[in-house]
Amino acid sequence: MSEHESAQVIPPSPSAEEYQKDSEGKPLIPDVADPIPLFRDWMAAARAAEPNDSNAMSLATVDTHGRPDVRIVLLKDISENGFAFYTNFGSVKGVQLKDNPVAALGFHWKSLRRQVRIRGVVQPVPADEADAYFASRARESRLSAIASDQSRPLPSRETFDERIAALQKEYEGRDDIPRPKTWGGYRLVPDEMEFWQDQAFRMHDRLKFVRKAGVWTHHRLYP
């Protein structure tokens, strides 16, 4: 792609006039002691403002060669214990988390001009929690989780469709679809969280939390 073609698809940096027009309604991050309630507040605001998947987050993992990998997944639970998401244990991320049980999360809420970065260790979600969440999913989503050998080569789309059709027949008239042993949840237990709030002229506000021995401390960062 030529420099001219790049200029056509990549937005230019905002002008001073554009920053001036867009400088209102961007509060500074409050100085709080615990990042979890603050995250819940930001998630609630995102749910009200974002048109799609306010709980979408980037999940970064590392393979055995130290090569990073990243993809978008959905946050399914927030607690003092951490941030939970679900997947196939045999997927690429499942294998990487088994070998290196550490990860990073990234949330970006464009409508609010906010992002949150989180790092920590990853632990399996207890089986009873995974069972409860699996049972809450739509019937078709549960069948899909059973049918899919996630991340593995698929000979054709028809192969997957045939698996779904066979499962629909097997569980016809039944709602007691069991969670497959190959599918479950992970919880990232955070030891670092950084909140970022956009400000005009790139004078962004950043507040970083670090947890050691169960105690959170925090400080602001230069933009």
Question: Can you tell me about this structure?
Answer:
By secondary structure, the protein is of the alpha+beta class. The protein has a domain at 27-134 and 182-221: Electron Transport, Fmn-binding Protein, Chain A (Pnp Oxidase, Chain A, Roll), CATH 2.30.110. It contains seven helices and nine strands, in the order αααββββαββαααβββ. Strands 1, 2, 3, 4, 5, 6, 7, 8 and 9 form a nine-stranded antiparallel β-sheet that branches. Strand 5 (102-109) and strand 6 form a beta hairpin. Helix 6 (139-147) packs across helix 7 (157-170).
Summarize the structure.
Helices cover 31% and strands 33% of the residues. The chain is α+β, with helices and mostly antiparallel strands and 223 residues long.
The main β sheet shows up as: 9 strands, antiparallel
The best one-word shape is: globular
The CATH level-2 architecture of the domain at 27-134 and 182-221 is identified as Roll
Weakly predicted, low-confidence segments: none
N-to-C series of helices and strands: HHHEEEEHEEHHHEEE
CATH homologous superfamily of the domain at 27-134 and 182-221, by name? Electron Transport, Fmn-binding Protein, Chain A
Q: How helical, in percent, are the residues? A: 25-40%
The SS-based structural class is: alpha+beta
Topology:
Elements: H1 3-9, H2 16-21, H3 35-49, E1 56-62, E2 68-74, E3 77-79, E4 82-88, H4 92-99, E5 102-109, E6 114-124, H5 127-136, H6 139-147, H7 157-170, E7 183-197, E8 205-212, E9 215-221
Antiparallel strand pairs: 1-2, 1-5, 3-4, 4-7, 5-6, 6-7, 7-8, 8-9
Helix pairs in contact: 6-7
